[in-house]
Specification:
Structural class: alpha/beta
Radius of gyration: 19 Å
Shape: globular
Strand order of the largest sheet: 3-4-5-8-9-10-11-12
Number of helices: 13
Length: about 375
């Protein structure tokens, strides 16, 4: 029965127990103050969604000043932001969910006006598409400084009361850029072969874990998010990702989190059987060494049931928790048939959605059911 499976507890490798199998996926909300602090509207938006689920993974926060990927993004690149970060962690934890801070650098995807035009990446290769800026290739010492910045932001997360951090190695941002043969044409120790392109992400994991060992006084979650493939040629293939995931599964992480638009999607290239789902390939490669969080177009209880049948231990809901913040509570009460799966454009206030996020939703035809 879906209720029993979804609502059963799950213990992560570090001993932290999640009260159920449902996690809030990290989603950009564009709703922070211009100075990089969280707004009351943003805090209320998270609090409204934190009661039923077991863990909230926040929107990404930039670990350096020039890492901001979106307008209205909250920052974590200096200790000045600890009070702001604390406010957000507290609002989530007060509702009974674990609070996990997603940490990242936007790299070549940063809008120039947000980073004083200083767009950086692994190499000076722009993202595909017209009008994308040519990034500046980071020097080795700058790469080392960014690795350190991920560590420093982890320390701030610990001080601010978070239960963990998620290293954002997905969605085309800087960590993925270093792993990508499209973005990374370096010939030093951070680029070249598939193995050398893993150097930056693996170094960040090592740095984050060393900071946790030094500063955390209780078990602290460290997760890693990745995208399985890139459409570009050259680009990350499913085979490349399975090689990375094989390494990640032995890094002592508490979970891996795949970024997918559709849970049941199949690979583009790089593996033998293109009819087998990406999730199936990942679970096979991981082979129970680390928990995997699956995500992607899970709206109804039936969608969740079908996803669980893949053998995945944890499910992340993204857009669905914006549409219906009481999703888990409805499952718990046996009221799955009352779950709302289409956004109601008359109910912004009732859904506690900040104006900038609401504007993004209503101008996103096809991304949200009902828009």
């Amino acid at each position: 029965m879906i209720k029993n499976e979804l609502l059963s507890s799950f213990t992560l490798p570090n001993g932290v127990t999640l009260k159920n199998r449902v996690v809030m996926a990290p989603m950009t909300n564009f709703s922070s103050n211009q100075d990089g602090t969280v707004t009351d509207d943003e805090v209320n938006y998270y609090a409204h969604r934190s009661a039923g689920i077991s863990m909230v993974i926040t929107a990404c926060t930039n670990v350096t000043r020039n890492g901001q990927g979106f307008p209205g993004e909250f920052a974590a690149y200096s200790d000045d932001f600890i009070p702001s970060l604390t406010k957000l962690a507290s609002s989530i934890k007060q509702q009974g969910a674990k609070a996990v801070l997603q940490i990242f650098h936007g790299g070549r995807m940063c809008p120039p006006d947000l980073v004083n035009g200083d767009i950086v990446s692994a190499s000076d290769i722009p993202a595909e598409g017209s009008g994308n800026p040519v990034p500046r290739a980071l020097s080795e010492s700058e790469v080392e400084a960014i690795i350190d910045a991920f560590g420093e932001t982890t320390r701030r997360a610990i001080e601010a009361g978070y239960d963990g951090v998620e290293i954002h190695g997905a969605n085309g941002y800087l960590i993925q850029q270093f792993f990508s043969p499209h973005a990374n044409r370096r010939e030093d120790r951070f680029g070249g072969s598939l193995e050398k392109r893993m150097t930056f992400p693996l170094a960040i994991i090592d740095k984050v874990k060393s900071v946790v060992d030094k500063y955390a006084t209780s078990p602290f979650i460290v997760g890693y998010r990745f995208s399985p493939e890139e459409p570009e040629t050259p680009g990350i293939t499913m085979g490349d990702t399975l090689a990375l995931v094989d390494k990640l599964a032995d890094k002592g992480l508490d979970y891996l989190h795949v970024s997918l638009q559709d849970f049941h999607s199949t690979p583009r290239r790089g593996v033998e059987d293109l009819t087998k789902t990406r999730i199936a390939y990942l679970l096979e490669t991981i082979n129970n060494r680390v928990p995997l969080i699956g995500v992607g177009s899970i709206y109804s209880a039936a969608d969740a049931q079908q996803a669980l049948e893949s053998g995945i231990p944890l499910l992340a809901l993204g857009r669905e928790l914006i549409i219906d913040p009481y999703w888990v509570q409805k499952v718990a009460e046996g009221k799955e048939d009352t779950i709302i799966t289409v956004i109601n454009k008359e109910k912004q206030k009732e859904l506690v959605i900040p104006d900038p996020l609401w504007n993004a939703i209503i101008h996103s035809p096809g991304w949200f059911p009902g828009v």
